From TrEMBL:
Name of the protein in question: Transcriptional regulator, LysR family
Single Gene Ontology MF annotation: DNA-binding transcription factor activity
UniProt-listed InterPro entries: LysR_HTH_N, LysR_subst-bd, WH-like_DNA-bd_sf, WH_DNA-bd_sf
Domain (HTH lysR-type) ranges: 1-58
Family assignment from sequence similarity: Belongs to the LysR transcriptional regulatory family.
PROSITE patterns hit by this protein: HTH_LYSR
Presence of keyword Coiled coil: yes
Coiled coil: 61-88
Pfam families named in the record: HTH_1, LysR_substrate
Length: 298
């Protein structure tokens, strides 16, 4: 039984319906239904009561919930142990980064590891919750994450080690050549905005620390959780976007984008590196020392 199949089944059991499980697994309901039917075909048994509306797991499946959970946990542990052993023997490690950090800060950090010519660094990108989960489940050796005063990371303790790498301003930016359009919108009492979803880290930051200080109506024109996509939408003139300075540094220097933090609210985040204290692979130890000497923005 494949791990993703067990996770699909657990999603159905934990949510109670195919529709809610599909949303949790980030797929459309028709696609998720086809996946469940493929599992049923492989097992030779029906798992879902489809005659009832809404459809729900059969009692026999519900009775096996704990056993399925244990199987999935065991397979995850096995996968992680095998991956960890492979990283140790291949002199490689995994760094999990928030999307913006992957495309801005991480390349400079990896380039700084020039003293490790045989080291293979794999970058994984995700939202903050995903990156932290990859760290604690040992799918990643190091995590690079943002934090703010209102959205802090869990502090260093007996289990996790944390290093602050430096500040990262979150700036409002807009195409320089279209500032007249923005001025007209502001005169009318509002501004077009490219927004982050409310349930992602930067969405929480903008809603908690930036939008309350705006003395203008916010008109969302587009929404995405991906900072590189926000950047492209802003460059196209769709609206004002709040982006990490390191991600738009080249465009600001070239005059393509204008920093509006003199007129619109901004905030400063901190970039932090985290690792598990129990991860003592030699490659991780060497890279962690290099991370401690790295300073964002330098």
């Amino acid at each position: 039984m494949r791990l993703e199949w067990l996770e699909d089944i657990l999603a159905v059991l934990e949510t109670g319906s195919l529709a809610a499980a599909a949303e949790r697994r980030c797929v459309t309901q028709p696609a998720f239904s086809r996946r469940i039917m493929a599992i049923e075909a492989h097992l030779g048994v029906e798992l879902i009561e489809r005659a009832r509306k809404p459809s729900r797991p059969k009692p026999a499946l519900r009775d096996q919930r704990e056993r399925i959970h244990e199987l999935a946990a065991g397979l995850r542990d096995l996968r992680n142990d095998l991956q960890r052993h492979d990283r140790e023997t291949q002199n490689s490690l995994v760094i999990s980064c928030q999307h913006a950090i992957t495309t801005s800060v991480a390349p400079t950090l990896v380039r700084g590891l020039g003293g490790e010519p045989h080291l293979n660094v794999r970058l994984r990108s995700g939202n903050r919750e995903e990156c932290f989960a990859q760290l604690v489940t040992r799918q990643a050796d190091i995590a690079l994450l943002y934090q703010t005063h209102r959205e802090p990371l869990a502090g260093a303790d007996d289990y996790v080690e944390l290093i602050e790498l430096g500040p990262e301003p979150l700036l409002p930016v807009f195409p320089t050549r279209r500032l007249d359009e923005l001025a007209a919108a502001r005169t009318a009492g509002g501004i077009p905005v490219v927004a982050y979803p409310a349930d992602v880290f930067l969405g929480k930051v903008t809603r908690q620390e930036i939008f309350p200080d705006l003395e203008l109506l916010v008109h969302p024109r587009a929404e995405t959780a991906l900072t590189p996509a926000i950047k492209e939408l802003v460059c196209a003139g769709v609206g004002v976007g709040w982006l990490p300075r390191s991600l738009v540094a080249a465009e600001l220097r070239a005059g393509v984008l204008q920093d509006l933090s003199g007129d619109l609210p901004s905030c400063t985040m901190t970039i932090a590196a985290m690792r598990l204290r129990t991860n003592r692979l030699a490659s991780v130890e060497r890279v962690w020392r290099a991370v401690g000497e790295f300073r964002a923005g330098e």
